[in-house]
Amino acid sequence: MFTGIVEELGEVTAVEQLQEASRFRLRGPLVTEGAKHGDSIAVNGVCLTVVETADGEFTADVMQETLNRSSLGALTKGSRVNLERPMALGGRLGGHLVQGHVDGTGEILSRTPSEHWEIVKVALPANLSRYVVEKGSITVDGVSLTVVEAAADWFTISLIPTTLALTTLGHKQSGDPVNLEVDVLAKYVERLLAAGVNPLHATGETR
């Protein structure tokens, strides 16, 4: 489980194409500190398993399913990436509950800069539209953000200088893909309602 608060701006140092998979080597001295085989690290919002670490870098294998559902397949040597370690139980929840399980990809439609922040408009896949609401939470490339406006096929987010400086969102251009993860609580509520269960009085019985 993650919080969507990016800890480090890392870099892809190598990409190896395998049969129906890819092996990435990424540089992230902070997130690899104390990391070991089997640990999880979120890369642009995608939860990956550490295969090995050495000299501030870690290796992760990415299966075809993940490549199909996320923008990781577009990464090349030198690409910058957002990195985050899993949240520690008992720690502060700075963003919102993030699983690192990407629901789909969007596309940067426009950027509107202002004096103290920047409004970014992102295309929203039709199957995710119902989960995105004004003032709700969404994860974009692993960054926990608040939705400013929500339409049927797009939403906007407001990026403060810190987010622009310390994450890849400060460098994304119109047309660039981004990974999206919607609030998992909304999906659970939807599933319960579809089964005829009152989420406030869930007993397992249907009505």
Structure commentary:
It is a single chain. The protein has helices at 64-69, 161-166, 184-194; strands spanning 8-18, 21-27, 40-43, 46-54, 57-63, 80-84, 104-113, 118-123, 137-140, 143-150, 154-159, 177-182. With 207 residues, it is mainly beta. The strands form two sheets. A six-stranded antiparallel beta barrel has the order 1-2-5-4-3-6. The two termini are 33 Å apart.
Key phrases:
40% strand, six-stranded antiparallel barrel, six-stranded antiparallel beta barrel, 12 strands, mainly beta, single chain, 207 residues, globular
The fraction of residues assigned to DSSP E strands is 35-45%
- What's the main sheet like? 6 strands, antiparallel, barrel
CA-based gyration radius: 18 Å
How would you spell out the order of helices and strands? EEEEEHEEEEEEHEH
Give the overall pLDDT as a whole number: 91
Strand order of the largest sheet: 1-2-5-4-3-6
Low-confidence stretches are none
SSE layout:
Elements: E1 8-18, E2 21-27, E3 40-43, E4 46-54, E5 57-63, H1 64-69, E6 80-84, E7 104-113, E8 118-123, E9 137-140, E10 143-150, E11 154-159, H2 161-166, E12 177-182, H3 184-194
Antiparallel strand pairs: 1-2, 1-6, 2-5, 3-4, 3-6, 4-5, 7-8, 7-12, 8-11, 9-10, 9-12, 10-11
